[in-house]
Amino acid sequence: MDELVALCKRRGFIYQSAEIYGGLQGVYDYGPLGVELKNNLKSAWWQSMVYENDDIEGLDASILTKSMVLDYSGHTETFSDPMVDCKSCGQRFREDQVPEYCKKEDLTEPRQFNLMFKTNVGPVDDESSYAYLRPETAQQIFTNFKNIVDSTSRNLPFGIAQIGKAFRNEITPRNFIFRVREFEQMELEYFVAPGDDEAAHSSWVQKRLKWWEKQGVPIETIELYEVPTDELAHYSKKTVDLMYKFPHGLEELEGIANRTDFDLGSHSKKQNELNINAKVKLNKDSNSKLTIKNNDDVMVVPFVIEPSAGVERGMLAVLNEAFTIESLPDNKSRIVLKLKPHLAPIKAAIIPLKKNDKNLVNLAKKIRSSLQELGLGRIILENTGNIGKNYRKQDEIGTPLCITVDFETLENNSVTLRDRDSMKQIRINIKDLEKTFMEKIK
Question: I need a surface site. Which of 32, 53, 117, 384 has the fewest CB within 10 A?
């Protein structure tokens, strides 16, 4: 982990937020390369969810959440952790995460600590004007269910996908970007007819495994963990966690939950008319029945399958798998991020052999512009004149291809194409460069 954290800061992937003021614990900023990697991972998820499926719609809902939404979802009552204080060391821990060095007799009685961030809305600061920064992206999907059904005329099964920020007031954020207070979720709510939920749940577990493998996280590095019944969330009938061995240990990468009809049932009016399976709180405030016709043309409250992944945890897993130290001749070594090309922050670096040669630099700029216009990601001009250092830098940040413009280029229109992983170099004519680039990057 230490080497990975050092690389992320040195090369501009991830910085501690407000570092010049001592930092803000559990909050991170994403630098020039980090924002590219993050966007590429989110884009890959969106592509696989929304574009590659004909039954999934997208949503971008508000972060500020009306308190009533979280009252009926159960968050106000249940979204808290039992915390204890150690009288010896003075630190506070979640009850199930007390370190061995703290003696039982030094611990206070557990107290519930609400994990949600509360904020005031409007000019008056009182209990009637508060809202929450959403603790998850799911609830706005459920409250927008009827809007999306009415505007798209969807039938079961169908899904609603969303990527967005969520906030949790973690007492002990830790392990770099694994557990933080401000994070992004990639979340799908897939609605199915009651009775079709178990098959749909199993199907989504397999789909998510295959997706992570395409991002460079092999299936054999992931363990499936079926959450025991007595540990399930209050809304869940069944949850399978994809457990990945992060640098700090085996932890959850993504959870796939069968949320039953709890959520739509909780946010519906006239619940006694809807044959709801889940145990829900009586709702006297909603103005809508969140129902849809099933295959028998009967209005039902659908069950929902939820694959939910954190962007930051995904980035950490991808970086961990890609991070490689390779031995080279003469007792040397190189660090290389073997990222999948579609995730790489920089797709190609164009390198003039001599930085102050006008002809080489102008041609390199022209090549960069032509490749950038293909729209496959960021292309950069690396104009420092030290070809060896340029290669090593691009290896460290995961750039799949380096394209060197040299004096032979001026003679015969050929450039040197260097592959990141094999370090092999070939000469290729400029007229064939776009086609070759597209084949290697896609």
Answer: 384
